[in-house]
């Protein structure tokens, strides 16, 4: 008699309605994982469910406040792996501590503390950001710097409380440091893998509107909603990656051996880019948008502050192959942005 196939590994994916998380969810399901996806409310639960009709290995649950004590207690039942993407970022924040820092930090430590109570959990993959690597006070420099996983943002709490952009950098930096401090202090049975992407472009799979775009998509929409008389804004973060490659990095992080545990990985495409290159791609691929694009563009990073990042560790240890070019990524994104414009949402 043929033996039964082993049950698929079970993954908890937090923040499943997000731009990156929706791509992760799709790739996890395609790879055969059983996924319990968390969202903040019933509306987001219905939206994610609609995007995956008939998915037999998907369960969607509501965790309204990821930072609340015991928030993940029930969600972690019978879970092997965790992918934690849930973290806030919005320029409308008025209380940086309450709206951005606390949810990011407490959400991360809460899920780690909950995971430590479940012996079945083998690994937590944390979606962080290059914002915890690049030194905020030095942007757009330092010129010639090549960032690696050894670098940490020096942003202070005082700076993080001063502006939403700094608060985002602080939220990612403080949350990631808290995660590694938790691992060192408690030495749980599971290990931790942290992924640090920069600006993320590519197709939009989750439900969005033109007024609620994720930050990187909103930047591109602003570039294609300009005019010939406008200039291209400075490219202060000349690093990018396609969302599909980011999602694949998460799957590889689940599949990797113990040797990648308790490490962080820069997830970025090769080289650097500029907003001028983005405009040039749109001009070539979407000639109908010519009147909406700045006349000025260019191929180099503006000013003397060009820096870069080293993605070799992600290739060598995760086995990640970066499949998508800047042209692939921007073309897919602009197609989706134009579709949103047509629906007037």
What does this structure look like?
It contains 10 helices and 11 strands. Strand 2, helix 2 and strand 3 form a beta-alpha-beta unit. 44% of the residues are buried. Helices cover 37% and strands 13% of the residues. It has a single domain, classed as NAD(P)-binding Rossmann-like Domain (Rossmann fold, 3-Layer(aba) Sandwich). It has a 7-stranded parallel β-sheet with strand order 3-2-1-4-5-7-10, with helices on both faces. It has a two-stranded parallel ribbon with strand order 6-11. It is α/β, with parallel strands linked by helices and 345 residues long.
Q: What topology does this entry show?
A:
Layout: E1 10-14, H1 19-30, E2 34-39, H2 42-51, E3 58-62, E4 81-84, H3 96-115, E5 123-127, E6 146-147, H4 157-160, H5 164-186, E7 191-196, E8 199-201, H6 215-223, E9 240-242, H7 243-255, E10 263-266, H8 275-285, E11 308-309, H9 312-318, H10 326-343
Parallel strand pairs: 1-2, 1-4, 2-3, 4-5, 5-7, 6-11, 7-10, 8-9
Helix pairs in contact: 1-7, 3-5, 8-10
Protein name: NAD(P)-binding protein
GO molecular function, one term: nucleic acid binding
Domain NAD-dependent epimerase/dehydratase: 11-261
Q: pLDDT under 50 segments (min length 5)?
A: 1-5
CATH architecture assignment = 3-Layer(aba) Sandwich
| Helix-and-strand structural type | alpha/beta
CATH class term:
Alpha Beta
What is the approximate shape?
globular
CATH topology title = Rossmann fold
Q: What is the number of E strands?
A: 11
- How do the strands line up in the largest sheet? 3-2-1-4-5-7-10
Largest sheet geometry: 7 strands, parallel
The N- and C-terminal alpha carbons lie at a distance of 56 Å
- Radius of gyration equals 20 Å
What letter string, H or E per element, gives the SSE order? Answer: EHEHEEHEEHHEEHEHEHEHH
- Helix tally equals 10
Overall tally of structural domains: 1
CATH superfamily caption: NAD(P)-binding Rossmann-like Domain
Which range does the strand content fall in?
A: 5-15%
Fraction of residues in helix: 25-40%
**What's the overall average pLDDT, rounded?**
91
């Amino acid at each position: 008699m043929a033996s039964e196939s082993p049950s698929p590994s079970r993954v908890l994916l937090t923040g499943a309605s997000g731009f990156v998380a929706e791509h992760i969810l799709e790739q996890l399901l395609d790879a055969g994982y059983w996924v319990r996806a968390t969202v903040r409310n019933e509306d987001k639960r219905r939206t994610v469910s609609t995007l995956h009709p008939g998915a037999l290995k998907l369960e969607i649950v509501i965790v309204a406040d990821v930072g609340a004590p015991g928030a993940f207690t029930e969600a972690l039942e019978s879970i092997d792996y965790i992918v934690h993407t849930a973290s806030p970022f919005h320029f409308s924040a008025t209380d940086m501590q309450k709206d951005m820092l606390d949810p990011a930090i407490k959400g991360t430590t809460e899920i780690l503390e909950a995971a430590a109570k479940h012996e079945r959990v083998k690994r937590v993959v944390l979606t962080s950001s290059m914002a915890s690597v690049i030194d905020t006070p030095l942007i757009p420099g330092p010129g010639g710097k090549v960032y690696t996983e050894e670098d940490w943002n020096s942003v202070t709490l005082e700076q993080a409380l001063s502006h939403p952009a700094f608060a985002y950098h602080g939220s990612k930096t403080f949350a990631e440091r808290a995660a590694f401090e938790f691992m060192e202090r408690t030495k749980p049975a599971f290990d931790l893998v942290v992924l640090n992407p920069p600006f993320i472009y590519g197709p939009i799979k989750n439900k969005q509107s033109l007024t609620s775009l994720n930050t990187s998509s909103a930047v591109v929409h602003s570039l294609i909603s300009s005019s010939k008389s406008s200039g291209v804004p400075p490219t202060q973060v000349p690093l990018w990656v396609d969302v599909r490659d980011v999602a694949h990095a998460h799957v590889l992080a689940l599949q990797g051996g113990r040797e990648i545990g308790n490490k962080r990985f820069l997830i970025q495409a090769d080289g650097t880019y500029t907003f001028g290159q983005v405009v040039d791609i749109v001009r070539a691929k979407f000639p109908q948008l010519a009147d909406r694009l700045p006349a000025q563009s260019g191929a180099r990073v503006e000013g003397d502050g060009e820096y870069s990042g080293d993605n070799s560790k992600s290739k060598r240890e995760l086995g990640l192959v970066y499949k998508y070019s800047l042209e692939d990524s921007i073309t897919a994104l602009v197609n989706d942005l134009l579709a949103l414009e047509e629906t007037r949402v």
